[in-house]
DNA sequence: CGGTATCCTCTACGATACTG
DNA sequence: CAGTATCGTAGAGGATACCG
């Protein structure tokens, strides 16, 4: 139950996130929501994947985006970056236990999304 | 498996969303992701709620935001808007069956989010 | 009460080119 | 291969005021 305090444009204090349950939903969304995050995690579900492979698998995301999301995921402790070899440089990304713990949600979301022929 | 074609700044065709499973995740996220959407649905889980009550419950969202999200949710068929009375004007929002079908995901997300003391 | 209308800022995302 | 650097734009989201 964390609240943070911000200062608005006129110097007044305002309380942000006087949390309750739905706030947990917002927090969760920040972790696995966001444009490509869920898909990245889902792609890592079985095995480590290399950076460029991930970019291709996502089909549409730029390297920059994938890079950004991966860094976020790393900071959040959901993903581990591993250098497999220099020369030629090879890097893989894989899920941590925490990352893996999100798979259930994503799988449920995927099934739900598919089961209603949801339009773009 | 829907693909759409866009034209880029230089007039070249590019294929967007050559879909696979994770794409379903992106689609799903568009429905229940987004800043306040999950929380709104979650707040409607038990009973219809009036507009201003919803705004207050969300604590931090502006009327404009809530209004926007509710319209999206209505279009997507997840929420029904119901005018209870004119004079004084009273409106409630409630979940459709489809909306209700998303609750499992949100509940799972909430529990997951809470179980790891996730930082803002 | 249940919204609209306005304005404004900020950052998310994409395109592109370049580097170790 | 695995990124970084740069630049540009759209639109998401907030503050505020007003309306039927």
Automatic annotation (TrEMBL), chains A, B:
GO MF annotation, one: DNA binding
Alphabetized PROSITE patterns for the sequence: HTH_HXLR
All copies of domain HTH hxlR-type, residue ranges: 23-120
Gene3D superfamilies associated with the record: Winged helix-like DNA-binding domain superfamily/Winged helix DNA-binding domain (1.10.10.10)
Keywords tagged on the record: DNA-binding, Transcription, Transcription regulation
Top-level taxon in the UniProt lineage: Bacteria
Pfam families, sorted: HxlR
InterPro entries recorded: HTH_HxlR (IPR002577), WH-like_DNA-bd_sf (IPR036388), WH_DNA-bd_sf (IPR036390)
PANTHER family the record matches: TRANSCRIPTIONAL REGULATOR, TRANSCRIPTIONAL REGULATOR, MARR FAMILY
Protein name, entry field: Transcriptional regulator
Organism: Pseudoalteromonas luteoviolacea
Lineage per the UniProt record: Bacteria, Pseudomonadati, Pseudomonadota, Gammaproteobacteria, Alteromonadales
């Amino acid at each position: 139950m964390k609240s943070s305090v911000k200062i608005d444009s006129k110097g007044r204090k305002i309380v942000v996130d006087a949390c309750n349950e739905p706030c947990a939903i917002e927090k969760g969304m920040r972790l696995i929501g966001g444009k490509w995050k869920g898909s990245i995690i889902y792609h890592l579900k079985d095995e480590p994947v290399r950076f460029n492979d991930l970019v291709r698998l996502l089909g549409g995301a730029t390297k920059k985006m994938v890079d950004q999301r991966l860094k976020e995921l790393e900071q959040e402790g959901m993903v581990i970056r591993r250098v497999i070899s220099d020369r030629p440089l090879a890097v893989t990304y894989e899920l941590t236990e925490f990352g893996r713990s999100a798979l259930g949600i994503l799988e449920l979301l995927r099934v739900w999304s598919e089961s209603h022929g949801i339009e773009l």
